[in-house]
Design a protein that fits this description.
With about 450 residues, the chain is an alpha+beta fold. Among the domains are: about 40 residues; about 60 residues; about 80 residues, General secretion pathway protein M, EpsM (Gyrase A, domain 2, 2-Layer Sandwich), CATH 3.30.1360. Helix content is about 40%, strand content about 25%. It has a five-stranded mixed beta sheet, with no helix packed on it. A five-stranded mixed beta sheet has the order 11-10-9-12-13, with helices on one face.
């Protein structure tokens, strides 16, 4: 059976080479059908190829590739070998582009976990949750989550789509071979990638001659944690000078390892939940689910129609209520000009609040006190601002740790209680989450 299937695929490939060996100018339908046929002819059990992209990809289209039989190379994405185009691809993305963390889910069911992740990780995020993609792996040890910006995922996916490539995206942090009790690290393209567990690790921008502060901080926290101290560090792709620097700076044994990245590793996350090749079994399942998809589409259309009807009905009700309020106001105050009653109510509430001094612990009060210190930041340094339960959270990106210390000192001089967390060195700067509250007297 396997031999017949192989002969059939080989025969079809021969027909494709003879019948449509060259793409028409401009692509066209023939080229599209040729690419689709090649995708269907990919063997489900074929060994994958690994692609490693640089931090400035896809602006710089240069990638490193490695095949299952020792093939390797470097070049533009369009120069990828034909054998790689016919095989499953694993694209390992820059370490600093993905946050690897753990979420705690108090509920028993997992049905709404994907929707709850942005709120469970709210304190750790430095960007708007709506701009982030959450991928997770539920294990007995916890819910491991990978958080990546949607615009970066879209840029990577667009570059792959332009070359008609289908791939699984995963952070290069998890491409480092790893064993329990040790950490694995690598420096390449101006970035450090550190793997600390099966689904955990971090990335940091830095220099080859200087260990990032976040590296030292993470190692210190690991030493104080319940898991105990790290027994050693495995260095991939570094020389003897870098090994000695790590050993001297971090105070742990460092062992060099020349094994290739992603050796025997299976991508732990499919970033954005859209990466990866759908095999023949997956396509058959999708075809079987077509009636369900049609029913869901019908429900969506009906729901939209119902919402539109309610919107029109409420619009008419609002117009009637507005006319009634205006008539009542004119009848009660015939000599006064006709104003919006809702606006009058808001104006009156504002006047009462001004007379009593307003809420001293509210958002406006805290923002008023903190605004001089925040205004002293450089343009674009304040990336996100949120308020909840009396705490004003400011995600900032400053040039160095000195600027972060100056911001904290200015806020404290204004009479505020300040807490700085989630400090990360990133692309030549420092990111942090600054939480501000009114200082208790």
């Amino acid at each position: 059976m396997g031999s017949s299937s192989y002969q059939a695929r080989a025969h079809l490939r021969g027909l494709m080479r003879v019948g449509i060996g060259k793409r028409p100018n401009g692509g066209g339908e023939m080229a599209k059908w040729r690419d689709r046929a090649q995708g269907w002819l990919r063997a489900p059990g074929a060994a994958p190829w690994d692609l490693f992209v640089a931090p400035d990809f896809p602006e710089d289209p240069i990638v490193d590739w490695r095949g299952p039989d020792g093939q390797w190379g470097r070049g533009a994405l369009r120069d990828l070998p034909e054998a790689a185009r016919r095989s499953p691809l694993r694209v390992w993305t820059p370490a600093v582009e993905t946050l690897l963390t753990v979420a705690q889910w108090p509920g028993r069911g997992r049905g709404k976990l994907a929707q709850a992740l942005p709120y469970l990780l709210e304190e750790q995020l430095l960007a708007d949750p709506e701009a982030l993609a959450f991928s997770y792996r539920d294990t007995p040890a916890g819910i491991f989550v990978a958080v990546t910006a949607k615009d970066r995922l879209a840029a990577w996916r667009a570059a792959l789509d332009a070359e008609r490539l289908t791939a699984t995206l995963c952070p290069v942090t998890l491409a480092l071979p790893w064993r329990p009790g040790t950490w694995s690290c690598r420096f390449a393209d101006g970035q450090w990638a550190v793997r600390t567990g099966t689904f955990s690790g971090f990335g940091a921008a830095g220099q080859l001659t200087r260990i990032p502060a976040v590296f030292r901080q993470a190692l210190e926290e690991a030493r104080k944690g319940a898991a105990g101290a790290v027994e050693g560090l495995t260095l991939f792709g570094g020389d003897e000078a870098l090994r000695r620097l790590l050993e001297a700076e971090l105070g742990v044994p460092v062992v060099p390892d020349q094994r290739p990245l992603a050796a025997g590793e299976t991508p732990a996350f499919r970033l954005g939940e859209t990466g990866g090749t759908v095999g023949a079994t997956g396509r058959a399942a999708l075809r079987a689910l077509r009636p369900a998809f049609a029913a869901i589409a019908l429900l969506i259309v009906l729901g939209f129609a119902h919402t539109l009807f309610q919107w029109v009905r409420l619009g008419h009700a609002e117009a009637r209520m507005q006319a009634r309020m205006t008539a009542l106001f004119t009848e009660s105050f015939p000599n006064a000009p006709v104003l919006d009653p809702a606006a009058q109510m808001r104006r009156g509430v504002a006047k009462l609040a001004a007379a009593t001094g307003g809420a001293g612990e509210g958002f406006l009060a805290i923002t008023t006190v903190a605004s001089p210190a925040l205004a002293a930041l450089a343009q674009g340094a304040l990336t996100r601002l949120s308020y909840r339960h009396g705490v004003l959270r400011c995600a900032v990106r400053v040039a160095d740790f000195g600027a972060l210390t100056t911001l904290k000192r200015n806020l404290m001089r204004a009479g505020l209680a300040v807490r700085v967390s989630h400090v990360m060195s990133h692309q030549g700067g420092v990111q942090a989450l600054v939480s501000v509250t009114r200082r208790s007297s």
